[in-house]
Amino acid sequence: AAWARALARAKLITDAEMESLLAGLDAVRAELEGSAFPFRRELEDIHMNVERRLVELAGPVGGKLHTGRSRNDQIALDERLYLRDILDHVDAGLREVQGALLAQAEQHREAPMPGYTHLQRAQPVLLAHHLLAYVFMLERDRQRFREGRARVNVMPLGAAALAGAAFAIDREALARDLGFSAPSPNSMDAVADRDYVVEFLGSAAIFGMHCSRLAADLTLWATAEFGFVEFSDAFATGSSIMPQKKNPDVAELIRGKSGRLYGNLVAVLATMKGLPLAYNSDMQEDKEPFFDSVDTLVAILAVVPPMIGSLTFRTDRMRRAAGENFATATDLADYLVKKGLPFRQAHGVVGKIVRFCETEGKGLDGLSLVELRRFSPLFQDDAKDALTVEASLRARAATGGTAPEAVRRSLALARTLIARA
């Protein structure tokens, strides 16, 4: 329809012919939307089917619509129009995932848990702090998709097969008519470019990686060894042989989808890497990976928010684990630093204390002041105060830290980001 109006502006068809084309196209659209369109396989593709049906409905004038146009620029246009809509849907879905994570973080803003490096207990953090990490990961995903949308929003129509239309088409007006920011500046690049597909697939793969990491956390936490979280029955399944099992299947499937998203990205990159300019039929192979990644994203975005919202966190177990396995050893080293000892020396002192505790079967909180002073005379009566989980959390109040005060600021920032349209 936009092309018909462009042809009329260029005086290539009359206004009456344009109205006939627009009426015919409206009828074609109604048939497509009503599943009444008579597809014919012998006509090769959707473009030829639409053109033939337009001629049947509008008469010979339908044959004028393809003036100055190629399927090469049509296909590039169609993909961009479609992807533009998909990106808006993806952004809304990402906001929902962020919102579900934020709701759980708000509910558990005071709940301590162990933080991990190398899958070993490291230092106490707040559960809200851990969940907010994913909120901010997803914010980067939203930024990537949004920034990619700006590059999608360049109009290739009018590039024709590769050399540009041979008629005085006002491409700037055509771009405005279709809601694009500008027409493509080079006709060869316009029909040969699939960067917008590759960029979308790359952003989708990174999002899939983030969801996979979240799913990996949750599946670990749901094990008997951790016991930090329980999935609702709606997002878990039983075993076909072991009646006691409750498997986190949905999270595992989400984790598995990341491989599919990676594969689609690599497939299109491999297809495009050796193609000379301009259009080549190899580029038809972008469609299946592209549409599959869209379907995969839509499925993930539909299931993740309710799954997160249904989680039950066992905060009592998390709290106990937060203080175990010498989790506040770094705080004891920091205590010595505040007394004037260089950190490297403080680190060595506390390392010796930990080895002593392991030999004696004690925790750090089980040491007396006398025992602590065997390792450094800098330890005073207040040393034991540094060893509590609460003190460890409070100490990390710098921006981005896990202290309750810092987490409250992060929660406020997350609310602002999610509310942003």
Structure, explained:
There is one protein chain. This protein is mostly helical and 421 residues long. Helix content is 60%, strand content 5%. The strands form three sheets. It has a two-stranded antiparallel ribbon. β1 and β2 form a beta hairpin. α1 packs antiparallel against α2. The longest helix has 37 residues. It is elongated, with a radius of gyration of 30 Å. The two termini are 30 Å apart. The model has no long low-confidence stretch (mean pLDDT 95).
* Low-confidence blocks of residues: none
Radius of gyration based on Cα positions: 30 Å
How many beta-strand runs?
A: 6
Question: How are strands sequenced across the largest beta sheet?
Answer: 1-2
Calculate the mean pLDDT score and round it. 95
Count of separate DSSP helical elements: 16
Q: Which class do the helix and strand fractions yield?
A: mainly alpha
Question: Summed up, what is this model?
Answer:
This protein has helices at residues 2-9, 15-33, 46-58, 71-107, 127-152, 171-177, 187-192, 195-221, 249-272, 287-309, 315-322, 329-338, 343-360, 369-373, 389-395, 404-419; strands at 112-117, 120-126, 154-155, 182-183, 229-230, 312-313. It is mainly α and 421 residues long.
